[in-house]
């Protein structure tokens, strides 16, 4: 795998480590970062769960840790906002819940020209873009042999 990664001295004498996989422009000054990055191209899963009768293996150590916390240790992150007490398996999910539900933040913004509409969930933004900004009409009305294509 390392054969597809190399070092290059550029004209300005900075030393960069580059990824030479086709269509990838990744470069870094830190060889360890390149080594970590190169795993994105690999299908090798090197992190195995050591719990009895568990055969789960993962590409990233963070995935293994998340698995152990969620499945074996039953770690939960609890929302303490105004007696909510909803539980989540990741801190990221808890933070997104707080932002969207309790703070009413809309994190997903439509980037289409002259739109800028915001949504709490990514899937709602995706639906909006398909319905409002796409000529694609994936549904067919079958009522009374209408057969009209609609969003």
From TrEMBL:
<dbReference type="Pfam" id="PF00096">
    <property type="entry name" value="zf-C2H2"/>
</dbReference>
<dbReference type="InterPro" id="IPR050329">
    <property type="entry name" value="GLI_C2H2-zinc-finger"/>
</dbReference>
<dbReference type="GO" id="GO:0005634">
    <property type="term" value="C:nucleus"/>
</dbReference>
<dbReference type="GO" id="GO:0000978">
    <property type="term" value="F:RNA polymerase II cis-regulatory region sequence-specific DNA binding"/>
</dbReference>
<dbReference type="GO" id="GO:0000981">
    <property type="term" value="F:DNA-binding transcription factor activity, RNA polymerase II-specific"/>
</dbReference>
<dbReference type="InterPro" id="IPR036236">
    <property type="entry name" value="Znf_C2H2_sf"/>
</dbReference>
<feature type="domain" description="C2H2-type">
    <location>
        <begin position="77"/>
        <end position="107"/>
    </location>
</feature>
<feature type="domain" description="C2H2-type">
    <location>
        <begin position="47"/>
        <end position="77"/>
    </location>
</feature>
<dbReference type="GO" id="GO:0045944">
    <property type="term" value="P:positive regulation of transcription by RNA polymerase II"/>
</dbReference>
<keyword id="KW-0677">Repeat</keyword>
<keyword id="KW-0862">Zinc</keyword>
<keyword id="KW-0479">Metal-binding</keyword>
<protein>
    <recommendedName>
        <fullName>C2H2-type domain-containing protein</fullName>
    </recommendedName>
</protein>
<dbReference type="GO" id="GO:0008270">
    <property type="term" value="F:zinc ion binding"/>
</dbReference>
<dbReference type="InterPro" id="IPR013087">
    <property type="entry name" value="Znf_C2H2_type"/>
</dbReference>
<feature type="domain" description="C2H2-type">
    <location>
        <begin position="108"/>
        <end position="138"/>
    </location>
</feature>
<keyword id="KW-0863">Zinc-finger</keyword>
């Amino acid at each position: 795998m390392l054969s597809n990664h190399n070092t290059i001295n550029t004209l300005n004498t900075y030393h960069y480590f580059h990824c030479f996989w086709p269509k990838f422009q990744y470069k870094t000054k830190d060889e360890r970062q390149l080594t970590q990055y190169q795993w994105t191209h690999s299908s090798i899963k090197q992190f195995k769960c050591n719990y009895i009768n568990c055969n789960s293996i993962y590409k990233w150590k963070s995935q293994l840790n998340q698995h152990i916390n969620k499945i074996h240790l039953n770690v939960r992150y609890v929302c303490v906002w105004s007696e909510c007490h909803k539980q989540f398996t990741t801190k990221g999910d808890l933070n997104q819940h707080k932002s969207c539900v309790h703070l009413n933040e809309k994190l997903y913004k439509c980037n289409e020209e002259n739109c800028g509409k915001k949504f709490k969930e990514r899937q709602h933004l995706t639906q909006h873009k398909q319905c409002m900004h796409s000529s694609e009409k994936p549904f067919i009305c079958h009522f009374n042999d209408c057969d009209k294509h609609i969003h």
